[in-house]
Write a structure and sequence with these properties.
By secondary structure, the protein is α/β, with parallel strands linked by helices. It is built from seven helices and 17 strands. The radius of gyration is 21 Å and the shape is elongated.
């Protein structure tokens, strides 16, 4: 079964994943994830050290104002320098997408946010379906069909325990509710948990960090759903093991596997969606083969899979595939 969709980025905000390393007081190197190649520098303020996101967006409302003092295209790269009264940010970005829309005529807001804190802030406005107030963040065909695929594979019996490891306002939760399953919704973000609770009015809700531990008893679940989670954690295999350990023998794991490209130009992500596309090419510990090997070592057998095919414009139109797979714990 192949599902076809086309995803286009329409927003102007840049969400740039970086590794922040301190050089001296108020001076930092900004590195690319995994390769540790230099991406830029920041001076004039104290920053959180470690994995973070640089959020760059046209300025609205109050807050510190940044201007562009230099904007130099060099082939497929773009050198840009932002400044405020006391701070300076230099970056070398891909000259495409959202970065290509940067303009010296605009004023910008810039924040450097620790990795996990960024996701909680982002999820306050990012929920993958329409809620009771009409809010939605993934109205595109691919996201809706991805969620529908999980719904088609999820078939719990009355009283079975279903754990959604990265919950959101997603239609498959309604199926667990209608089947009278015991539903547990987990997420790092308390904001998204509150919204799901208001929307669903069913189940239990758990704020937790999957990379540390899942505060549930091992072998206590019949179903575990891992949807749009592993792309965004630092240790994907560790997080997968933590989730898989919750399943009892005969239990089923529904997993959104890493994206694969037929042919993809070298690029660096400028938003969360592009991170999901880019990471399998840059992180040798994050691939379908690595995750499948991890699950086999934990005693899992693959039962079925649904392949989603989609297009996305980076430098040109690229073709990608992603699978939703069902595994059974032997």
């Amino acid at each position: 079964m192949t599902l076809v969709a086309l995803r286009r980025g329409k927003k102007r905000a840049i969400h740039l994943p970086v590794r922040v390393e301190r050089l001296s007081r108020g001076e930092y190197a900004l590195l690319k994830l995994y390769s540790r190649e230099r991406l830029g520098s920041f001076t004039g303020a104290e920053l959180p050290v470690g994995n973070a996101y640089i959020a760059i967006l046209p300025r609205v409302g109050k807050g510190r104002e940044y201007r562009i003092s230099a904007l130099n295209p060099r082939g497929d790269k773009l050198e840009v320098e932002f400044f405020s009264a006391s701070e300076k940010l230099k970056l070398e970005l891909d000259n495409r997408g959202r970065a290509a829309k940067l303009s010296p005529k605009l004023r910008y807001s810039i924040r450097v946010v620790p990795w996990k804190r960024f996701y909680e802030l982002f999820e306050r406005r990012s929920i993958p379906a329409k809620d009771s107030r009409g809010r939605r963040s993934e109205p595109d065909e691919l996201a809706m069909r991805r969620i529908a695929t999980f719904e088609s594979l999820l078939n719990p019996c009355t009283g079975e325990v279903v754990f959604d490891a990265a919950t959101g306002i997603k239609s498959y939760l309604q199926k667990a509710k209608h089947n009278n399953a015991r539903l547990i919704c987990g997420n790092l973000s308390t904001t998204i948990l509150r919204r799901v609770k208001e929307w669903l009015s069913y189940g239990s809700f758990l704020a937790y960090d999957v990379e540390l531990a899942v505060p549930l008893r091992n072998e206590s679940c019949d179903w575990v759903i891992v949807d749009a989670l592993l792309e965004y954690v630092e240790n994907a295999t560790g997080a997968l093991r933590n989730a898989a350990e919750l399943l009892q023998r005969g239990g089923k794991l529904l997993l959104l596997e890493p994206i694969e490209a037929e042919k993809c130009e070298d690029f660096y992500p400028q938003d969360l969606w592009e991170l999901a596309i880019w990471r399998p090419n840059a992180d040798d510990k994050f691939s379908r083969d690595v995750l499948s090997t991890t699950l086999r070592s934990e005693g899992f057998e693959r039962l079925s899979q649904v392949e989603l095919e989609f297009g996305y414009k980076i430098y040109k139109e690229e073709r990608f595939t992603q699978r939703v797979a069902m595994y059974k714990k032997e």
